[in-house]
């Protein structure tokens, strides 16, 4: 099942009260589930010294969640000035932060290097002379091009705007060494939402092979290899989970072999977002209308502003109705928001139990790239975020947006350029 049953057991008995107290709609995240997933991730890679997860802040950019990551010793993968500011707001500094930008601006570099700096992950060879002052540690993002196929979601690496080519690897490290960089890493991200662990193992193998090349040609020992994010989760009930244990065993074995052959072992970094928080969040929304025209519609009090993935990618998010069991007699409905866009649908022709006005719907797997992707088109406001804590209490960790928030950018000092 997409949403872990332990999360269901913790949440569902309380959900009517939570919905009454906080009012719908809201995303709610499961503290215990996030901590358990983090602990298990660390466990799988504990034989590789220096293993560290850098949580991809863009997946769930809420300080309360980032603090959970921090409590597990994780760092943060940031790709914008706002994400840097968020990570630093909870005390992350220097090697706690990886800055993985692309099409990087001078402002991005200044922000990344200010306030204790960070590990810079450079997306292109042309950026080397543009870094105002090189930090001690940098890495490059590698794009294997035709050497890898990527997966259906992230697409063909040859068409991806990210990273340096295979031929640019040696010159890039050489140039950075000449600029005085002391420690190096190597990064790549070739898949997204991939549940076949063999992809990640291949990625580790590919980076280790480049590490061997760099040792031979430049005498360079890489401090770390970063295999990126992209670990997948099952959004559909019939899908298998990623075999994280096999991934851990197989990657650890590759690192061991590398050490035997080359006399040193780089650390392993990863920057998962979805895997860490995706299944540990749900969007809770209430049915407010039913409509029977050419199709049957259930209108809910949330819309695309809370969750873009179905409308944007046609992504499947499993839906349950609180206290109603699915059955083979269920009739297909479209579950819709109120935005003036026909793709504002959480589900299309989905068999669901008969829904009445007032029923509570649970939309699964919104813990990553859910609230964060929300937008304000059509003046639709983003909902609040709640945290179901380990002690059973529920806390609001972000309030819902207001019209004042929406109109804030209309208050400014007038300035006119006269002809
Ligand atoms: C988006 C992103 C991630 C996180 O991806 P997930 O699919 O959430 O694991 C990690 N690294 C980079 C560079 C990204 O752009």
From TrEMBL:
SUPFAM superfamilies, per database record: Alanine racemase C-terminal domain-like, PLP-binding barrel
Kindly state which keywords UniProt assigns to this record, in alphabetical order. Decarboxylase, Lyase, Pyridoxal phosphate
Cofactor(s) needed: pyridoxal 5'-phosphate
Q: Which PROSITE patterns match?
A: ODR_DC_2_1, ODR_DC_2_2
* Stretches assigned to the Orn/DAP/Arg decarboxylase 2 N-terminal domain: 48-277
InterPro entries per the record? Ala_racemase/Decarboxylase_C (IPR009006), DAP_deCOOHase_LysA (IPR002986), De-COase2_CS (IPR022657), De-COase2_N (IPR022644), De-COase2_pyr-phos_BS (IPR022653), Orn/DAP/Arg_de-COase (IPR000183), PLP-binding_barrel (IPR029066)
Ranked from the top, the taxonomy reads: Bacteria, Pseudomonadati, Thermodesulfobacteriota, Desulfobacteria, Desulfobacterales
Q: Which organism is it from?
A: Desulfobotulus pelophilus
Taxonomic superkingdom: Bacteria
Q: What is this protein's name?
A: Diaminopimelate decarboxylase
